[in-house]
Write a structure and sequence with these properties.
The complex is a heterodimer of chains A (115) and B (113). Chain A is mainly β. In chain A, 0% of the residues lie in helices and 50% in strands. In chain A, the strands form two sheets. In chain A, strands 2, 4, 5, 6, 9, 10 and 11 form a seven-stranded mixed sheet that branches. A four-stranded antiparallel sheet of chain A has the order 1-3-8-7, with no helix packed on it. Chain A is globular, with a radius of gyration of 13 Å. Chain A starts with a strand and ends with a strand. Chain B is mostly beta strands. In chain B, strands 2, 4, 5, 9, 10 and 11 form a six-stranded mixed sheet that branches. Chain B has a five-stranded antiparallel sheet with strand order 1-3-8-7-6, with no helix packed on it. In chain B, 36% of the residues are buried. Classes of the chains: A mainly beta (115), B mainly beta (113). The A-B interface holds A 4, 31, 33, 35, 41-45, 48, 50, 55-56, 58, 89, 91, 95, 98-109, 111 and B 30-31, 33, 35, 40-45, 48, 50, 88, 90, 92, 94, 96-106.
Amino acid sequence: EPEVTQTPSHQVTQMGQEVILRCVPISNHLYFYWYRQILGQKVEFLVSFYNNEISEKSEIFDDQFSVERPDGSNFTLKIRSTKLEDSAMYFCASSPRLGVGNTIYFGEGSWLTVV
Amino acid sequence: TQLLEQSPQFLSIQEGENLTVYCNSSSVFSSLQWYRQEPGEGPVLLVTVVTGGEVKKLKRLTFQFGDARKDSSLHITAAQPGDTGLYLCAGARSGGSNYKLTFGKGTLLTVNP
């Protein structure tokens, strides 16, 4: 069964360093997302991406964050200067289309620890 | 802000028992999805419900979307230890070029053998 794959599964980084989290969405999907889950808290929406541009972003997704689809298969989340509070599990997700009843499929997550 | 409240937050039962968990909101959702999440892993989709009053069955799991599309329930019949996990509901609104899920905090289910 097709799945969303993410790398790395776990990354530890120093505060202030740049981090890139990588995702390969399901191949025929058109809409891509990043969500995050701080330990013990809800899964939160960060950003949605369609047709090579951001279609919506949350208040969490500030200027330190950026997303990119550098080629036909990868979708990346970059955090320019990490802060301690960026420590979380980051989930990439994709969906084939928009519309009522559309389904979003999640990857296994990348656990980011900022020290 | 659209909020989803899930109850109970924790549920521990014996194998073979039935259970129901709830997902409630004051907001209307165009659709609602139920996921199961294991520790350290991503949410795995169980079902999507779209129509008010809709009922969907997935083996021993029965999902219902409220008539007003503000609430949903998940009923598990004859629970098994393999059903243990965090059950998340997530509501969706759609329109224009965006699609965003609002998640509840989840119900952590433990089924004891």
